[in-house]
Amino acid sequence: MNTLASYACNPLHSKGRRFAEPVAPTRSDFQRDRDRIVHSSAFRRLVYKTQVFVNHEGDLFRTRLTHSLEVAQLGRSIARALQLDEDLVEAICLAHDLGHTPFGHAGQDALNECMRPHGGFEHNLQSLRVVDRLEERYPAFDGLNLTFETREGILKHCSRSNAELLNAREPGGVAQRFIDATQPSLEAQLCNLADAIAYNAHDVDDGVRSGLITMAQLRDAVPLFVRYYEATLADWPQLLVPDAQRKLLYESIRRMLSEQVYDVINSSRAQLQSAKVSSVQDVRLHGQVLIAFSDEMKAESQRLKQFLFKQLYRHPQVMQTMDGAQQVVRELFAAYMVEPERMKPRFVQRVLAASTLNERARVVADFIAGMTDRYAAREHEQITGLSLLGVP
């Protein structure tokens, strides 16, 4: 068992759950959170939600589920080296995308546009909403009743206005830090960075696999990739032949990923020592994030992110698919607002109970955000007669 540092979140000192429950006899509170997340319906749906490529475009491309698993694996590796609570890190990593819409960020942008007159939509807030309210598994409460520490980590971003709304319902709760300008736990900080490391690496892999970007482009524009590509060839020159290109790519990415992990560990250790934090409270009151890349690695990682944004996320083929995906979301929203009876019965009941237009719209947003890619495409085709995405 990993010995926890004094500044790590200790499950024995958790701020607790919204609804009191007896302690589990064989699991810590953070282990229990992780298990509840894994068994949730929202977690299972991630297997059919877009990371970059819509699910039916290829069986081997990452989905939101495989992305979340890779984030959790990276997070645990770094947490162990820094003596943070691995179970808390894993729980936050596995839950961070539970509120994501179908069709990735394109779906989120479209749903936010639809919800702009009704309070907007943001997937971090929706992930918290999923674990606090929308999951229906326990007779004593709605949601999963996770610990404060897990919920705090899930709420990665929050505007001041949304934080005040959340804080009105839960004074001093997980949104308080966005009002006080304090920091989240080190475990939450780590999950944020593990997310970025994971998607940069696996989007390179998926992008090359798809044929939308090439290793030649990466060598020309991404110094971080070049360094480990050249190191791989120095050790394995036989990988330069066409039949070995997959191994060359994998090994280059593996080395790049490992070096980023080591950089985070070494940089964070130095910052923790310099900051002289000795408790979770010290971490919260510290003026800056302590789990971070070195300045050099941060700059190189940013170069990679910019390359992916320009060459992959904005590739005409990806944009064409995402334009269709956004049309699906917008037209589903419009249809359900007019005919809510098209939704599942429990959402119909919530619409009937809604007292304002904003509440009604939020129910529709909850329903759409919970859809998988293929379910959203099929529902849209059934309603409109249009097949925009070619989902089988």
Please provide a written account of the structure:
The protein has 392 residues and is an all-alpha fold. It contains 19 helices and no strands. It has helices at 29-38, 41-45, 64-82, 86-95, 104-115, 123-134, 148-154, 160-169, 176-180, 186-210, 215-221, 223-235, 245-275, 280-285, 295-313, 316-338, 345-353, 357-369, 373-384. Helix 1 runs parallel beside helix 4 and helix 12 (223-235) crosses helix 13. The protein is globular, with a radius of gyration of 22 Å.
SSE pattern, N- to C-terminal: HHHHHHHHHHHHHHHHHHH
Radius of gyration: 22 Å
Q: Level of helix content?
A: 55-70%
Distance between the termini: 46 Å
What's the β-strand tally?
0
DSSP strand content: under 5%
Quick structural overview:
Helix content is 63%, strand content 0%. The chain has helices at 29-38, 41-45, 64-82, 86-95, 104-115, 123-134, 148-154, 160-169, 176-180, 186-210, 215-221, 223-235, 245-275, 280-285, 295-313, 316-338, 345-353, 357-369, 373-384.
Topology:
Layout: H1 29-38, H2 41-45, H3 64-82, H4 86-95, H5 104-115, H6 123-134, H7 148-154, H8 160-169, H9 176-180, H10 186-210, H11 215-221, H12 223-235, H13 245-275, H14 280-285, H15 295-313, H16 316-338, H17 345-353, H18 357-369, H19 373-384
Helix pairs in contact: 1-4, 3-4, 3-10, 3-13, 4-7, 4-10, 5-16, 5-18, 7-10, 10-13, 10-15, 11-12, 12-13, 16-18, 16-19, 17-18
